[in-house]
Write a structure and sequence with these properties.
Helix content: over 70%
Strand content: under 5%
Order of helices and strands: HHHHHHHHHHHH
Structural class: mainly alpha
Largest sheet: none
Number of strands: 0
Length: 185
């Protein structure tokens, strides 16, 4: 991808990047393009554009299409986390799309990839804020995946910190004031 032209707005760049991802131009560049797109999430008009065009579904589709690519899985989990963190509209859509299933599948498929485990755990921690998603994750043995990741990567600070956060959210009782604190902290 070419750098942002001086006259190009961030919203225009957001639209360009989403189009590039949708067209599956070059799979080797998916991560670079998706990372650049997520760097724009804090820009109000760009985030609004992402919401309007359901970028979460584009990310989930990429994660589905490239299940065996650990880099796409890592970047996809990070993108879902970032959208969930920054947008209540996207949060509801991500929850409804049952994104946790892809996150858990990614962690299961790439058990030996530290970066996928760290990103998946961070994403799972935030997805667990939703009561219905938390219950579904627990029913699908997310706790086993958390413990496996913690055991496999004892020396990785990101895995350990994200796993602790995931455990906290998974075991949390769901009272509203605490859920607001978790999302905003």
């Amino acid at each position: 991808m070419e750098p942002l032209a001086p006259a190009e707005t961030k919203k225009d760049r957001t639209l360009d990047l989403m189009l590039v991802l949708k067209e599956h131009f070059d799979p080797k560049q998916i991560c670079t393009v998706l990372n650049e797109l997520m760097s724009l999430v804090e820009d109000g008009p760009s985030l609004e554009c992402m919401e309007d065009y359901h970028v979460h579904q584009l990310i989930l589709d990429l994660m589905t299409q490239f299940k065996t690519n650990p880099d796409v899985q890592e970047v996809g989990c990070n993108a879902i986390w970032k959208l969930f963190h920054h947008s209540s509209r996207q949060r509801k859509r991500i929850d409804k799309a049952e994104a946790y299933k892809l996150v858990m599948e990614s962690m299961e498929r790439h058990k030996q990839v530290e970066a996928v485990q760290a990103a998946g755990l961070r994403c799972a921690a935030y997805l667990a804020i939703s009561r219905t998603t938390r219950a579904s994750m627990l029913e699908n043995d997310i706790m086993d995946q958390v413990i496996i990741a913690m055991t496999a990567f004892k020396e990785n600070r990101s895995v350990q910190a994200n796993a602790c956060q995931a455990l906290t959210h998974l075991l949390f009782d769901g009272s509203e004031p605490a859920a607001v604190f978790i999302v905003t902290s």
